[in-house]
Amino acid sequence: MTVSATQSHSSVQVPPHHPLGHQVTRWIKTQLFPTPFQSCLSLITLALLVWFTPLALDWLLFSATFVGDSKADCVGGGACWLPVTQRIELFVYGFYPDTEIWRVNIAFGLAAAILPLLYIKQIDRRWVLGYLIVLPFLMWWLLKGGIGLPEVSSTKFAGILVTVFLGVIGMLFALPMGILLALGRRSNKPVIKLLSVLYIELVRSVPVITLLFMASLMIQLLFPEGMTIDIFLRVLIVLIMFTAAYMAETIRGGLQGMPSGQYEAAKALGFSYWKTMGLIILPQVLRNTIPPLLTQFIGLFKETTLVVVVGVLDVVGIAMSTTAAPEWLGLEHEVYLFLALFFFTICFTLSRYARHLEKQMEKSRS
Amino acid sequence: MSTASQFSSTVSANHDTTAISIDNLNKWYGDFHALKNISLKVTSGERIVVCGPSGSGKSTLIRCVNQLERHQQGSLTVLGETLDENRKRLQRIRRNVGMCFQHFNLFPHLSVLKNCTLPQTANLRVPQAEAIEYALSLLDRVQMREHANKYPGQLSGGQQQRIAIARALCMRPKIMLFDEPTSALDPEMIAEVLEVMVDLANDGMTMLCVTHEMGFARRVADRVVFMDQGEIVEEAPPQQFFDTPQSARTKRFLTQILDHGVTAA
Question: pLDDT: is B3 or A244 the higher one?
Fold first, then answer.
């Protein structure tokens, strides 16, 4: 190839600088109308959107009723959000005593603080870890009371309070337990290995709903009469046990993917087993398994809704009791849409956060 | 590269002491007899090159020295301590014996600097500031200081291997093991790694190297050990080993390897 040819070739490589309008038409052309068939699909989709969006917005917002006292006030023809707005305190705090609601708010705040804590890189990891370890106990103390706070019966726990509590504490305990189980399953000590395998296989082979029933009915049989464990704690333990078994398998997959050279290098440098795992192997494994682990976190968060079958009223339980109440009869659509929105917001936030983490890892690795 | 005596403080000037003593070592992988009655003594400050065809057991031998491989028979004494089931003793020995691998095995989730400081802070309880200072001085030695904040994945093979050497040296080892440190490198990067190793040898480090770099062996080694089929076939100073090899197997190996021109450095 001659010099002039390479030069003319390289001049083509300079990205063309077009005005914005040009770029938009270009995008429309290449993305929406590349072939006749795809053009047809695009047109149909656009038509549906144009027809559906105003209808949906009108029903959801413009003609909807947000303020009022009873179903009779819903005259706009749109959605009737009154069962949610009127009962929002019930949805969020359940039957928690009014005078103590500040405790729930603090507990929510503490749980929400996890995200910025994980986000801000400047904070020492050890502090974050310490916070995550203390948090479940702090939340339990705030909600349940005792030591300096008036005790609140857990029969008063309901609504979003239950969902958030089960979800957050479940996640905080399930991950470390899953890690230990995964390590146990790969241990070269036969007893530890056998116990881990048995546990994982047993828990994975039983539907979570069965485990919940067992927790609510059977565990009681093991204890002497009069001694009870809070039903709340029982379902929490089941959710943790269940999620941990699945996480253990995900993490085990990650451990198997680690090159043996990493273990050898750590050994040769004099790292002990726990230091090798904690400082060298697990940090890499957890990074590699963020997407599946997050799927399990989201799964756990949604599975908390199953506790309704053993009589714990989570946010779904409140929704069910609302739609069954005579004054709000016939407003299932609105109530369940609200539920869907609630779960979507939290799960989508989690999913975006995981994506952000993954991107950060990619950046530091390439 | 400078030969400032940075490492000599850790290396005893007393050449009479035995660094490694291997006595009638046997190892099997299932039915395969990988090491057959190996005996070898390395005095401190000595540089030994172990060579031989692939599958001859040379890597297995040096991996036995820090027990990445377990032997089944025979005894192994490293720095005056005889290896047994005692885990604390093994860890102590491992901290005194540095090792470099064919595939570097740097920790990809840690920066270059952290790769060199973490072993010090976690295993030797060196204070952070001191660990950083020492790590930087060693990275300087292998001419990688300007890459201290990069991650292993961003560096070439030769650069990674030099960092791996610096990382091993961070533990202030008295013995260094090299397991084919240049075999996974592109030809143009072999020289930079060998240069670091020569520098280390000139500083008096006790070295046990498995390598195919015969030029390095000739230049640096006090003794060359030739292994084949799990046995030590020949053991001689380099001059004698290369010029007047005794056994037929050694001769054949040398012809093969020299014909391929693997004589860099």
Answer: A244
Residue A271, chain B, CB below 8 Å: the answer is yes
Cα–Cα distance for residue pair B111/A198, rounded to 1 Å? 39
Contact B122 A264 (CB under 8 A): no
- Quick check: B207 contacting A, CB < 8 Å? no
CA pair distance B239, B250, nearest whole angstrom: 14
* DSSP letters for B195-224: HHHHHHHHTT-EEEEE-S-HHHHHHH-SEE
- Given strand B32-43, what is the order of strands in its sheet? B32-43, B18-29, B73-78, B81-82
Probe site for chain B from A269, A271, A277, A364 (most B CB atoms < 10 A): A269
Residues in chain A closer than 8 A to B154 (CB atoms): 366
Confidence (pTM): 0.81
CB-CB contact of B174 with B159 (8 Å):
no
Contacts of A271 in chain B (CB under 8 A): 119, 122-123
Q: Does residue B235 contact residue B51 with C-beta atoms inside 8 Å?
A: no
Tell me which residue in B108, B123, B154 faces A269 most closely, judged by beta carbons: B123
**A288 Cβ contact partners less than 8 Å away, ≥ 6 residues apart:** A254, A257
- Please, are residues B96 and A272 in contact by the beta-carbon 8 Å criterion? no
Reported as half-sphere exposure (CB side, CA atoms, 13 A), residue A363 has a value of 6
Interface with chain A: mutation pick from B66, B78, B106, B107, highest number of A CBs within 10 Å: B107
Min distance A265 CA to chain B CA atoms (Å) = 6
Q: What average pLDDT score do residues B45-58 get? A: 92
CB within 8 Å: B167 and A271: no
Between B211 and A68, where is the model more confident?
Answer: B211
Do residues A150 and A222 make contact, with C-beta atoms less than 8 angstroms apart? no
**SS3 assignment, position A85:** helix
Longest dimension (CA), chain A: 94
Contact in structure between A232 and A310 (CB atoms under 8 Å): no
Q: Does B149 touch chain A (CB under 8 A)?
A: no
Q: Are B66 and B94 in contact (CB under 8 A)?
A: yes
* Phi and psi at residue A117, to the nearest 5°: -60, -40
Q: Using a CB-CB distance cutoff of 8 angstroms, which residues of chain B are in contact with residue A285?
A: none
Strands B73-78 and B81-82: antiparallel
- The answer for residues whose C-beta is within 8 angstroms of residue A263's C-beta and 6 or more apart is A276, A281
| ipTM score for this prediction | 0.88
* B132's tokens: 């950083």
pLDDT band at A174 (very low <50, low <70, confident <90, very high): very high
Burial of A83 by CB count in 10 Å (0-12 exposed, 13-18 middle, 19+ buried)?
buried
Residues with Cβ < 8 Å from A114, sequence gap 6 or more?
A131, A132, A135, A168
